[in-house]
Amino acid sequence: MGTKNCPETPRQKMINMMYLVLLAMMALNVASEVLDAFRVVDSSLMQTFKSVDSKNEQIYASFAQAYEENPQKVKEWKEKSDQVKALTDSLNLKITRLKEELVMKSKGTNLTEEGEVFDSHGEQSFILNAKGDTLLIKKDDELNIPSEIMIRLGRAEDLKTDIIALKEAFLALLDEDSPIRATIEQELDTSDPKSTLKEGVADKRTWEIEHFDNKPLIAVITLLSKMQIDIQNAESNILSYLYSQIDASSFKFNKLGARVIAKSSYVLEGDVYRAEVFLAAEDTTQQPIILVNNKPLKIVDGKGIYEVPATSSGNFEWGGIIKYRTPEGGYNTYDFTEEYQVSKPSVTISPTKMNVFYMGVPNPVSISVPGVPSENLEVSISNGRIEKNGKDYIVRPKAEDINGRNTKVSVNANFDGQKRFMGSMDFRVKQVPDPEATIAEKSSGVIRKEDLLAEDGIFAALKDFDFDLKFVVTQFDITFTGAGGYNNTWSSTSNRFTNDQRDQFRQLAPGSIIYIDNIFAHGDDGTDRELSPISFKIR
Fold it and tell me: Domain named Gliding motility-associated protein GldM first immunoglobulin-like: which ranges (predicted)?
């Protein structure tokens, strides 16, 4: 019967509505097994991405080496490879940032910024952003955010435009008859899928809809990872093609040049200067002949070993020739020169504040030995201890040494496992000077009663002292003078004025004298100091 003859009851309408809601929920509920599969695939893709990236870096390194050996011949192909790297790095970075946007807007978490250690054992999805931070994907099955970002906000269209631009740039680097043109076009293909018939109507879908519409987050991430690998593979193919255009057999020995590598061009008197002399290109089937002062050097693995004792200070120049057999049986000769410096052992120890150490405070000191890395220095002090602090040192003296007879900073240097004494310097050690008691930044003179009442108490100030050391007043007495001479003394057991003292301030008349003594202060260096008395006249 038709619906007019059998109208739906309210109950039937409710059941139909619940059925539709159930179908919608089933459509949105992506099976966990499918999500797990995407997680595994994405992890595998990123491992592949790293492998291909490592392979491409090796090709770039080969370009750099070839260019160094023969710049004129390799320049054109080196510049094209640099262009390829800039284009692919830029697009891969955009995709990585797009992944980060998708994850974070889907309530993901940056575990690195949160200080958490990620250890999912394969049970949770994650990505690495451009900085190497681990981003945890909390909603693998999120459908709305990916569609919103990729389709409605147009990120997929932008991505397609960038891929097309990369493909066109790559093809422009190839000859028209290059065999890898078809491979590049296939790897970077962004054409729309073929139309299909759906219920008798042509269903035309775009590349953007096909890849990113109504897909769970982990599927979109996996697709983006796959695109990154396609870009890397296209990069690898075009790099291999560009490198093949260089005559690899000619540039290796196109320009033979003498090279000298010294262990150090700075040598201490009494040590040995050592250098390796060799040709930039090596042929394992024959050894060169290296002459210094017409005497042949010992050859080890194609390198000549030159050693001479450093018996005196100064700059020294040396050189010779390298003779290498040509394929025709003759010899080509290559000249070389080198120089080195020999100096007496010396050390520079510079206190960065002043020429004295102070008790109870960290005293910064810079210590350096010309030609010796800081990590090879051993520094000690005879009075107290010295600690490494970044590139410099901190000295903490143990006892006062006003005349500098018992405080010596000594420096040794490690040369190939052998300790050498480089020098020492004597220092004086003093106590930190006593601070000065002040009210309103004054220690004496005339003060208005209003200004006195406005102050909280007495402060201890270290004037003209370079170190950041603080003292706090712990007690003081105030004696007031008036018409009848000295009155009672009022005491405080802190650095603040008491209520009784403030009451006395209010009664002061112009010309009255206040005298403050018995002032004690405690410093950051752990000492307690009795400070000099101070006095003021009320204006």
Answer: 248-343
Q: DSSP secondary structure string, 389-447?
A: ETTEEEEE-SS-BTT-SS-EEEEEEEETTEEEEEEEEE--EEPPPPPEEEBTTBSEEEE
Please tell me the distance from the alpha carbon of residue 339 to that of residue 37, in angstroms, as a whole number.
64
DSSP code of residue 467: S
User: What pLDDT does residue 89 have?
Assistant: 92
Name the average pLDDT for the chain. 81
| 458/453 Cα distance (integer angstroms) | 12
CB atoms closer than 10 angstroms to residue 239? 23
- Measured CA to CA, the distance from residue 56 to residue 429 in angstroms comes to 61
Q: Say what angle helices 32-69 and 217-244 make with each other, to 10 degrees.
A: 20
One DSSP character per residue, 101-164 reads HHHHHTT-EEHHHHTPPP--TTSSEEEE-TT--EEEES-TT--HHHHIIIIIS-HHHHHHHHHH
Q: Which CATH class is domain 258-343?
A: mainly beta
Beta strand 485-492 pairing with 392-396? unpaired
Nearest to 190 by CA among 221, 234, 148, 147: 234
Contact, 277 vs 304, CB < 8 A?
yes
Place of tokens 């981003």: 135
* Domain layout of the chain by residue ranges: 30-195+203-249, 258-343, 348-430, 436-538
Query: Tell me: the pLDDT tens digits for 23-50?
Result: 344 444 455 666 666 666 767 777 778 8
Which long-range contacts link 209-213 to residues 24+ away (Cβ below 8 Å)? 209/151, 211/156, 212/146, 212/147, 212/150, 212/151, 212/156, 213/147, 213/150, 213/151
CATH hierarchy code of domain 348-430: 2.60.40.60
Q: What is the pTM of this model?
A: 0.42
Task: Output the DSSP codes for 225-282.
Answer: HHHHHHHHHHHHHHHHHHHHTS-HHHHTTSS--EEEEES-SEEETTSEEEEEEEESS-
Both tokens assigned to 151: 């389709």
Q: Which residues fall within 8 angstroms of residue 391, CB to CB, at 6 or more apart?
A: 366, 374
3-state SS class at 384: coil
Query: Residues with Cβ < 8 Å from 107, sequence gap 6 or more?
Result: 138, 139
Q: Which of 494, 490, 486, 495 is nearest to 513 (CA)?
A: 486
pLDDT band of residue 162 (cuts 50, 70, 90) is: very high
Nearest Cα to Cα of residue 81 among 92, 66, 97: 66
The residues pairing with 478 across neighbouring beta strands, listed in sequence order, are: 490, 516
Local structure of residue 374 (DSSP, 8 states):
G
pLDDT digits (tens, 9 = 90+) for 492-509: 999 999 999 999 899 888
DSSP characters over 21-34: HHHHHHHH---HHH
What tokens appear for 41 in the block? 């695939």
| Residue reference for tokens 């040509």 | 326
Sign of the CA dihedral with 158 first, then 164, 167, and 169 last: negative
The whole-angstrom distance between residue 408's C-alpha and the CA centroid of its chain comes to 37
Strand-pair category, 408-415 with 272-279: unpaired
- How far apart are the C-alpha atoms of 145 and 139, rounded to whole Å? 10
Cβ contact 342:313 at 8 Å: yes
